[in-house]
Amino acid sequence: MPGMLSKTRTTLEMIKWEHSIFALPFALTATLLAARGLPALRTLLWILVAMITARSCAMAFNRWADADLDAANPRTRTRAIPAGLLSRQFVLGFTVFMALAFVLASAALNRFTLYLSPVVLLVLLGYSYMKRLTRWSHLVLGLALGLAPSAAWIAVRGSLDPRILVLTAAVTLWAGGFDVLYACQDFEHDRAAGLHSLPQAVGIPAAFWAARLMHLAMLGLLLWFGLLFHFSLAGWLGIAAAGLLLAYEHSLVSPRDLRRLNAAFFAMNGVIATVFLVFVATDLWLRR
User: Fold this and answer.
1) Which of 50, 106, 170, 250 has the smallest count of CB within 10 Å of its CB?
2) SS3 of residue 254 by DSSP
3) How far apart are CA 120 and CA 122, in angstroms?
4) Nearest alpha carbon to residue 176 among 218, 206, 125
C-alpha cells in the first residue's frame, strides 16, 4: 500500500492534476450556455470524466515523449521519468488507459462526441511533437485547451453552434500566449537542443510582445462572444474582470525578470477561468 500510494502521488504530480482548472471552467461555461442553465446530471458527470481523462492522457504522453529532453534540461530533470520515479512503460500504459477512458466518456455522451474523440486525441497528443517542427507550437497547445468549450457544447447539444467557436479561439490565444511566456524559461535549452519556440525564434522581448497581442486579441474575442450570447451586466463584468486579471498577470513578469512566472502562469490562470465562469453563470441565473 505505501508503494501504491507513493506511485499515485507521483502520477498526480506528473500530470499536474491541479492545473485541470485551466480549461475546465471554460468547458463548464459552454455547458451552461448550451443547456441554458444546468444540464442533466448524467451529462455533466460524463463531461467532467472526459475533461479529466483527456487532460491526464495529454500530460502523461507529453512526459513520455519528452523524457529525454526533460533529462537534459536543468529545469525539468527532476520530473518523474528522468528522476527514475516512474518508468516510461508505466507512463505509456497510463496514457493508453486514459485515452480509452476518454473515448468511453465520449461514447456515453452522444454519437457526435464519439466520432470526434480521435480528432481531439490527435490534437492533444500531437502537441508534444510540435516543438520539434514549428515555432508556433504554442498555438497547438492553446487549441488543445480551446477545444474544451466546443466539445462541451457538442456534448450537451449533439451539434456545433458556430458561436461557441469564438470562445474556442479566445481560449486558444489565452493559453497560447502564456505558453509563449512559459517557454522563455527554456530559451537557452531550446536553442541548444534544436527545439522550436517563439522566444527561441524572435528573442524574449519580442516574445513578450507576441504574448501581449495574443491576450489583447483574446479579450476582443470575449467581447464578441458576449455580444453573440447577449450578455447582460454580469457577463460584461466577467470579461472586465478577466481583462484586469490578465493585466495583473503581465505585471508580474518582464523579459528581464521571470522569477514570478510560475505564479503568473499557474495560479492566476486558474483564477481567470473560474472568475469568468462564475460571472457567466450569474448572468444566466439573473436572466432566467
Assistant:
1) 250
2) strand
3) 5
4) 218
- Kindly list the structural domains of the chain, giving each domain's residue range(s) and its CATH number in brackets, ordered by start: 20-286 (1.10.357.140)
HSE-up (13 A, CA, CB side) for residue 128? 19
d(CA 197, CA 180): 8
> For residue range 113-141, what is the model confidence (pLDDT) as tens digits?
999 999 999 999 999 888 888 888 999 99
Cβ contact 51:98 at 8 Å: no
DSSP 8-class letter at 257: B
- By residue count, the chain amounts to 288
Long-range pairs for 249-254: beta carbons < 8 A, 24 or more residues apart: 249/178, 250/211, 250/212, 250/215, 253/181, 254/208
Mean pLDDT of 73-91: 82
Three-class secondary structure of residue 255 per DSSP: coil
Q: Indicate the residue type of 114.
A: L
Half-sphere exposure of 204 (CA within 13 A, CB side): 16
Cα 214 from Cα 208, distance rounded (Å): 10
Of 94, 5, 111, 102, residue with least CA distance to 50: 102
**Residue linked to cell 490527435:** 122
Cβ–Cβ contacts within 10 Å for residue 262, how many?
13
CA dihedral 51, 53, 59, 64 (to 10 degrees): -160
DSSP letter (8 states) at residue 80 = T
User: Which among 35, 41, 79 is positioned nearest to 60, based on CA atoms?
Assistant: 79
What span, in angstroms and rounded, lies between the C-alpha atoms of 108 and 142? 26
The reported pTM is: 0.90
